[in-house]
Amino acid sequence: MTDQTPNIKDMNERSREVFRRVVEGYIESGQPVGSRTLTRDFSEKVSAATIRNVMQDLEFLGLLNSPHISAGRIPTQLGLRMFVDGLLEVGDLDGKDRETIDRTFGSNDQDVATVLDNVGQALSGVTHGASLVLTPKHEAPLKHIEFVSLAREKALVVLVFADGHVENRIFTPPPGQTPSSMREAANFLNAITAGHTLSELGEVIAREIAARRQEIDNLAAELVENGTALWDNEDEATERLIVRGRGNLLSDSESEGDLDRIRNLFDDLERKRDIAQFLDLAEEGDGVRIFIGSENKLFSLSGSSLVVSPYMNADRKIIGAVGVIGPTRLNYGRIVPIVNYTAQLVGKLIADRS
């Protein structure tokens, strides 16, 4: 492989067509594509030997790979990335796929959690991959906060939101907390939280503690700082990820190596490891993003691809994401518009219900 990353614009027309046909053939069949297959419907009259030479050049560039001696070629991760960035033709959303997704939003009687679960089922069904739906945090303004001591190393924080929603969260308070320090911490928070959502609260609290350090006991200040960190804790975040359609990945596996990678993926999904990064991936760019193989830092061990799009609330703030995960030979041109359309509908649902 050369040190310089190849560029699709630097290829001549014949190399570009060979490369495109190998990638498209692999995505469709999952099998290596040989030179004789390409000669049958190539746009110009060329011999199998000529095509083999072009494929060897593409292999030298690191874009194709030959899994077996005398076999056809398959695209490498670098080749798939170059195809997605330079040659991918994104189609229109299929009418049947649109109808299937639309049906999940058909009833106004269902709560948001139920609708998003149905969205996950529909998304895995139409894409034949596993779907990931990161549901939004409760973003209503807070009305009241209270700390309750349960044991020496266990406390409960009760969060009452302006819309009537109540959440109870158990956490480990800093050592030495007393009923008095808990009351003081709650009083301090209630004086500054009105009208602020949880996501806004961290910055407000940090600013107020810095400005009013003399007014609040050290123990109470420690509880406030420790408690707010835990309100945005990893456990709460992991419960927000809906995963559907894992069986689709197993049925698409053709080798023991594939099965091992899928098992690694399932382990990641079960542990929800680093799942907070899922939304970070979506937020790094506008619209649908595609992560191929090891580019996907969440599930890199499984060698999977992730197609993900964020969705926004009425204030145009990103609050969640939807995505599809599957083998690297995903039909990207078909799945991109599906994920994009689903994300838009989820955003509209959240905005309408807020």
TrEMBL record:
Pfam families: HrcA
Gene Ontology MF, one: DNA binding
A GO biological process held by the record: negative regulation of DNA-templated transcription
Alphabetical list of Gene3D superfamilies matching this protein: 3.30.450.40, Heat-inducible transcription repressor hrca homolog, domain 3, Winged helix-like DNA-binding domain superfamily/Winged helix DNA-binding domain
Keyword line: Repressor, Stress response, Transcription, Transcription regulation
Transcription regulation among keywords: yes
Keyword Zinc assigned: no
Superkingdom, natural source: Bacteria
All copies of domain Heat-inducible transcription repressor HrcA C-terminal, residue ranges: 114-336
NCBIfam families: hrcA
Function as written in the Swiss-Prot or TrEMBL entry: Negative regulator of class I heat shock genes (grpE-dnaK-dnaJ and groELS operons). Prevents heat-shock induction of these operons.
Protein's recorded name: Heat-inducible transcription repressor HrcA
Protein species of origin: Yoonia sediminilitoris
